[in-house]
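STRUCTURE:
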């Protein structure tokens, strides 16, 4: 783990609900998104990953079950951010690799078309979350409120 002194609560499932990890993840995700935009455009660029994109990516990656039921897109975005931060802290993914994964679908879009950029970002973040989930052991049974879901 990068920061040995960080008291990460538990496994990735409960970490996905950690609000402090979501705060860190907000910065990490926006850095990854900005780097991916820069790679795709072949020039420095920056941006903030919208919660609409992050929440849809979580669903598309099949990880919606990690969030509590009946939450809005902002909270789903927080879950996505916490997952990315946790994976990075646990050294399951690097920032550079994440940016490359995210940049692939972005490299094919017209950056003047916001809907096109957001759809490509959804695909990129979905691919990033799938990569993370393949490297981490998410146990559905450990989640309160989701014990009977498979």
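SEQUENCE:
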């Amino acid at each position: 783990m990068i920061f040995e002194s960080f008291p990460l609560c538990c496994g990735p499932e409960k970490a996905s609900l950690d609000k402090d990890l979501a705060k860190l993840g907000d910065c990490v995700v926006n850095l990854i998104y900005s780097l991916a935009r820069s790679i795709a455009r072949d020039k420095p660029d920056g941006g903030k990953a919208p919660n609409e994109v992050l929440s849809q990516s979580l669903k598309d990656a099949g990880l919606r079950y990690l969030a509590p039921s009946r939450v809005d897109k902002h909270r789903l975005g927080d879950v996505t951010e916490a997952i990315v931060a946790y994976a990075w802290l646990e050294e399951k993914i690097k920032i550079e690799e994440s940016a490359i994964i995210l940049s692939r679908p972005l490299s094919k879009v017209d950056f003047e078309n916001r809907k096109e950029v957001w759809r490509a970002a959804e695909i990129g973040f979905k691919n990033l979350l799938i990569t993370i989930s393949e490297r981490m052991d998410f146990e559905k049974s450990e989640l309160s409120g989701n014990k009977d879901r498979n």
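REMARK: The chain has a mean pLDDT of 86.
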